[in-house]
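Hi U.,

Before I forget, here's the chain from the pilot set. I'm dumping it here mostly so it's searchable later in email.
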Amino acid sequence: MLQRIQSVWLLMATMFDAVTFRFPFYSGDWLRDAFPNKLIDLDARTTIWLTIFTVLSGLLAFVTIFLFHNRKLQLRLCYLGIFLTMVLLTMYFVEIGHFANGNVALWVIFYFAILACFIMAARGIWRDEKLVKSMDRLR
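Structure:
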């Protein structure tokens, strides 16, 4: 399972996804709140949709690790993970618009690292598929 580098990338994406429940993307005064001077952290638990998409992204990364026998499906799921993570990041930036003022947290690196890990995993799977096809051609 962990002989291939893409398994490590997918495991890292899963871990970074789990970290997003703890560390904020953005901190500031949320306009939706009844108390306007209260500081709110925007993280994966802030809205139900952010929670759902974050859990789906993490589960997708974790499940994709174990599909190493079916590289084509694994590659498609990595592409789905890239798309899902981009939708998730877009949702975070839309939620930033609901804040009166605030600042981006340092932990935003974890959120973009999920996308980078999915991209690197897809690249590794694509290279494996290319290698297998070249070996089949030589037979």
